[in-house]
Amino acid sequence: MAFADKTGEGRGRVSLPNWLRRTLVTLGSIAVTMLGLLFVTFIIGRVMPIDPVLAIVGERASQETYDQVYRELGLDQPLLVQFAYYLWDVVRGDFGMSLLNARPVAEDIARVFPATLELATLGTIIGVVLGVPLGVVAAVRRGSWIDQIARVVALVGYSMPIFWLGLMGLLVFYGILGWVSGPGRLDIFYQDIVPTRTGMILIDSALAGNWSVFGNAFSHIVLPASLLGYYSLAYISRMTRSFMLEQLSSEYVTTARVKGLSERAVIWGHAFKNIRVQLLTVIVLSYANLLEGSVLTEIVFSWPGIGSYITTALLSADMNAVLGGTVVVGLIFICLNILSDLLYRVLDPRSK
Amino acid sequence: MNTLNRLLTGAAVGLAIAVSSVTMTVAETPPNMLVIANRIDDITTLDPAESFEFAGSDVSRNVYQKLINFDPMNLDAGYQPEIAESWTVSDDGRTITFTIREGLTFHSGNPVTAEDVEFSLRRAVILNKTPAFILTQFGFTEENVEETIVAEGNTVRITTDKPYATSFVLNCLTSTIGGIVDMETVMANEVDGDMGNAWLRTNSAGSGAYSLVSWRPNESVTLQANPNFYLGAPAMERVIVRHVQESASQRLLLERGDIDMARNLNPEDIAGAREAEGIKIHDELRGRLMYLAFNQKHPELSKPEVRQAMKYLVDYQGMQDSFLSGQYTIHQNFLPRTFLGAVDENPFSLNIEKAKELLAAAGVPEGLTIEAGVREAQERIEIAQTFQNALSQVGIQLDITVGTAKQILGRYRARELDVYIGAWGPDYPDPHTNAGTFAYNPDNSDEANATGLLAWRNSWDTGGLTEMTDAAVVENDTDARVKMYADIQSQFRDTSPFVVMFQKIEQAAMQENIQNVNLGGATTAVTYWVITK
């Protein structure tokens, strides 16, 4: 019988150890996802109404110059050939030269990425430190005033344009109150004082033991990071609340309460313990979102990160930079997703 | 979303005005340092042989000296000696011999010699980057530079293919591409025969008032004063230009005292900054023009009366007083004010009745529909809509297509658009730059493919202006030359399918203690070495 034959074949194969099979599947899915990402960004780059040739030669160039640059960029080749060249370059870690500043795109990204990383990390920390307790309390005191406040906080976070909130924050805390420093990562007087090691100024200045630079960098980052933190808080607190509600309504919590455990032990010792894994996934995803989605924040705060890098590149038709930036952001997103997946497997006993 | 953001930003700025005057505590930048907020994301290279963008020209103007240059404190005087102490013109008008000033040095300490000048000009021709046409239009080619650009002792001799007006040649030498580089330093950094191009994109080798400390794309440009500058060490020892995209952010930085000058405030923020204590606004005419153009392949648009009618269908005053407030001024001629040969005659104003008569005389059918292409920039779209409104009153429907540079410029260059609404800036500070694009079209056939000429893009046979432009560019009597451009512009106003509407006014907001600011007018770029505070 057909079915029997198939099972028979299966039995005959050398079975790989479970962990190896899983690793191979994971690596395979990374490769396929990356290939898809590269292909889509490449196609988008080619069909977009942006003319990289015009960006190089300018509006006034003659047709001959235009045609020459067109050929130099390989745009006269078939699309698949262009894609093959592109893939080969990317595999070797070469994103080409930026059309605009004639530097390798990979170097540019290495320069701007730490700025975004620093901002998004601080933003996520703020979001977690405030969002998780807020979500837990909102769930425990469901319907109370604190739950209402949490709801409003989240609603505002979801609906207010980050661009406007950023400008308002600048206006109030920098313009009027003068509590924090303005746009940029450092005051001009503090620039180029500490050596660049990680590209993250807070860490670099701490490593150099230069606390006045650290303080200045902190007063610059605290506002945009709080803003991003607020958006991540809005998301994290809502998710925490719903995870907690689910746990609190389950039977084991009732049992624990009946057993006479203190409310504190029930909430933090039992219910919260059970949502940690889910929560970790949410936090990792929120982190990924901040890493890729802080474009407007970076523009409002003149923050030279990868978001504003890709935007500027896009507006000036610097396709190498756009593709390079997109691939890097995509890679990070994929890695963080896989990380959260792995954490889930490792930490959640049920998934074994 | 965009409109919402604009509204919300407006509200934020309004609030700032309401509360800022009482509560703001103002910081101060150091007395020997100039800090400017500007949009500098247009910089692609700082090599003078290649740089062709506004923010890049700003850097170049301060870092590199040229054979001749403008005096920032007296732009009207025209070009003045700089590296060249003096010059003579041969009898046949084709050869100019420059005598090099003694005692000038590059930032490296090397003396500025005739060989450096020869090298720099030859290099610009050989590299043949985008702005090279400013030099190659005199007949210089890679093959002939050894004969046409020659150093001898302390002189440099350049020989053009025709006897052009000396003022034309000299004006061109004041543009960015005329910057003189330090041959020894540049060639020490040569890679693969690129004549130091890759290195000079991000480094400087000049003899100007400032040297380049660093350029971080989309972040900042830092300049350091040259203590040995031949006019004396500049008062501002360091100049830092910070890239700040948002007008509102620039204004906050300015009002907080964290910067000395903000260069990209929109009309609302200019109005707000004007109210703030300790801030002043500097207005300066720049070279950029806004214009409408009508494709002469269109059977209706090519009628002389229709071309005339269009000039009466633009609400010049209304636009100047509303959304262009303070940032553009009415100007109906292709030479920007302050240019040699510029005229100040603006005979047209919105006149629906007159336009109706002209259109009736031309027999334009009721309900005619034409298409206008606009690039996605707020003020251009608003101009298009205002024009659309006026046209609807004479029974013409204007369909507006908004698009990116690729879409709109591509069709414009292919002579496919009925109407183009756009902007044009002079390439070099000589009247020929705009005369040569607006009023010059030696071959109007499709095969000529002269996409660089605006007259060609609109399929306009200039009716004799091409020959007049050719004559003006070789006229050596400057007064006669001025008169010739006045005549060309007079005929152009009447007959051309172009409606030149506005000239740019740049408004820079700055701390009150900043003195001697000069943004370069219509002819050149900003100068920092005269600034004090």
General description of the model:
The complex is a heterodimer of chains A (about 350) and B (about 525). Chain A is built from 15 helices and no strands. Chain A has helices spanning about 1-10, 20-45, 50-55, 65-70, 80-90, 105-140, 145-160, 160-175, 200-210, 210-250, 250-260, 265-295, 295-300, 305-315, 320-345. Chain B is of the alpha+beta class. Chain B has helices at about 1-25, 55-65, 115-125, 135, 145-150, 165-175, 185-190, 195-200, 245-255, 265-275, 305-310, 315-320, 350-360, 380-390, 405-415, 430-440, 455, 465-475, 480-495, and strands at about 35-40, 70, 80, 85-90, 95-100, 150, 155-160, 210-215, 220-225, 240-245, 260, 280-295, 330, 370-375, 395-405, 420-425, 500-510. In chain B, the strands form 3 sheets. In chain B, strands 1, 8, 9, 10, 11, 12, 13, 14, 15, 16 and 17 form an 11-stranded mixed beta sheet that branches. In chain B, strands 4-5-7-6 form a 4-stranded antiparallel beta sheet. Chain B has a two-stranded antiparallel ribbon with strand order 2-3. Chain B is globular, with a radius of gyration of 24 Å. The interface between A and B is large, with 51 and 59 residues.
SSE layout and pairings?
The complex is a heterodimer of chains A (352) and B (533).
Chain A: H1 2-12, H2 18-47, H3 52-57, H4 63-72, H5 79-91, H6 105-140, H7 145-159, H8 162-176, H9 201-208, H10 211-248, H11 251-258, H12 263-293, H13 295-300, H14 306-315, H15 319-347
Helix pairs in contact in A: 2-15, 6-7, 6-10, 6-12, 6-15, 7-10, 8-10, 9-10, 10-12, 12-15, 14-15
Chain B: H1 2-23, E1 33-38, H2 54-63, E2 68-70, E3 79-81, E4 84-89, E5 95-100, H3 114-127, H4 133-136, H5 145-148, E6 149-152, E7 155-159, H6 166-173, H7 183-188, H8 197-200, E8 210-216, E9 220-225, E10 238-243, H9 247-255, E11 261-262, H10 267-275, E12 279-294, H11 304-311, H12 316-321, E13 328-330, H13 352-362, E14 368-375, H14 378-392, E15 396-403, H15 405-413, E16 419-424, H16 432-438, H17 454-457, H18 465-473, H19 478-495, E17 498-511
Parallel strand pairs in B: 1-10, 1-11, 14-15, 14-16
Antiparallel strand pairs in B: 2-3, 4-5, 5-7, 6-7, 8-9, 9-10, 11-17, 12-16, 12-17, 13-17
Helix pairs in contact in B: 1-10, 11-13, 18-19
